[in-house]
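Key result, reporting period 2: structure in, sequence out.
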């Protein structure tokens, strides 16, 4: 792995960029700048080159993500894998309403495999499908002038389990029943009020699934890692702070803790999953040592080598696979107000005050390269 220039720590993006890249140089110097308390500056040409490198890498990752996700879901569920997209955002009218818009892609999400040119497949599909959905529901959104898209995630299910557990209605998914069992909601599915299930309801009815998310921007995570004290960032799964390995993050939710470790053991065995050969890099056991936020899972970092029908189509890609059992997923995602979260937020606030000037300086540089994390897309034709 590439090292930061003098401190012996792993480079924050060593999984994704080469030592001779502009990104490598800027990120290494940003980390050194935080450690030295210096506001280092970079030439416009170097920043422009780094931005171009990022866009190229993002497109490469984007192109191979859906084939890998589909192969992973088919390994888990066979050909009976059904895809749903959840779009988080806000309806704007006399009073704003935070909501989730669910979109069923069925069994053959061909839209997720179409090249998108200058934008990511995620962004194109999210905007197109959300716009079409809002056109279809029409009068149901009367009184609202627009919907602001904040984020989207994709979920893969075993269709037979969805039917068995009562999430099908007249041959279609009943989203107001399903969505509260797979993702925390702001209280509304489209404009229908919903409630969070109890742990008992969740354990009885929630379907297993795997979800996927590609980070739209790495700027905030790079800032957080770059501002940590010396020695905080470690390699090979040691410690809670590591080089970024989840630019693309996959999260299989399985039934039991035993299944978590069985699947991790499978990923260690250098398996072939569909048209990808999987090489295990390292595993971090966040069950044994949870993150400061209280998050628990097995985080498995792998290198996915395209093979078979994918050979020559994509570059090998590093992917983070966070395996978690249902009970822990509920704890991670649905339980609010834990002391660990409060303590974590206090520590982050203290760090932010201490390095506020440095963060402001480097944030402007990193956002030029990687974009801003929050970039709502407004759909106005309601």
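The corresponding designed sequence is given below.
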């Amino acid at each position: 792995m590439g090292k930061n220039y003098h401190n012996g720590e792993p480079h924050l993006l060593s999984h994704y960029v080469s030592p001779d890249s502009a990104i490598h140089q800027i990120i290494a110097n940003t980390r050194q700048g935080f450690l030295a308390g210096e506001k280092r500056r970079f030439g416009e040409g170097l920043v422009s080159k780094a931005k171009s490198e990022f866009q190229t890498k993002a497109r490469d990752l984007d192109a191979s993500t859906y084939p890998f996700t589909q192969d992973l879901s088919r390994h888990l569920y066979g050909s009976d894998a059904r895809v749903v997209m959840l779009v988080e955002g806000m309806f704007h009218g006399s009073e704003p309403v935070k909501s989730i818009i669910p979109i069923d892609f069925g069994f053959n999400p061909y839209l997720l495999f179409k090249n998108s040119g200058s934008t990511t497949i995620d962004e194109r599909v999210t905007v197109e499908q959300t716009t079409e959905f809002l056109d279809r529901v029409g009068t149901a959104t009367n009184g609202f002038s627009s919907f602001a898209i904040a984020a989207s995630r994709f979920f893969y299910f075993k269709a037979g389990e969805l039917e068995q557990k009562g999430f099908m209605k007249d041959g279609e998914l009943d989203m107001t029943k399903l969505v509260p069992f797979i993702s925390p909601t702001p209280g509304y599915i489209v404009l229908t009020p919903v409630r969070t299930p109890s742990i008992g309801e969740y354990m009885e009815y929630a379907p297993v699934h795997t979800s996927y998310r590609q980070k739209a921007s790495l700027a905030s995570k790079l800032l957080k890692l770059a501002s940590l004290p010396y020695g905080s960032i470690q390699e090979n799964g040691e410690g809670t702070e590591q080089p970024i390995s989840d630019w693309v993050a996959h999260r299989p939710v399985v039934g039991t803790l035993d299944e978590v470790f069985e699947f991790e053991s499978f990923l260690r065995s250098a398996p072939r999953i569909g048209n990808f050969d999987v090489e295990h890099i390292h595993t971090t056991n966040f069950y044994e040592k949870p993150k400061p936020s209280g998050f628990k899972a097995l985080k498995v970092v792998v290198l996915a080598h395209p093979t078979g029908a994918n050979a020559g189509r994509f570059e090998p890609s590093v992917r983070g696979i966070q395996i978690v059992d249902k009970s822990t997923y509920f704890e991670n995602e649905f339980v609010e107000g834990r002391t660990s979260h409060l303590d974590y937020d206090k520590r982050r606030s203290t760090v932010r005050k201490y390095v506020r000037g440095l963060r402001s300086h480097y944030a402007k540089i990193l956002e030029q390269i990687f974009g801003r994390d929050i970039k709502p897309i407004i759909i106005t034709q309601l």
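The longest strand covers residues 144-158. The first helix runs from residue 22 to 36. This case is discussed further under Risks and Mitigation.
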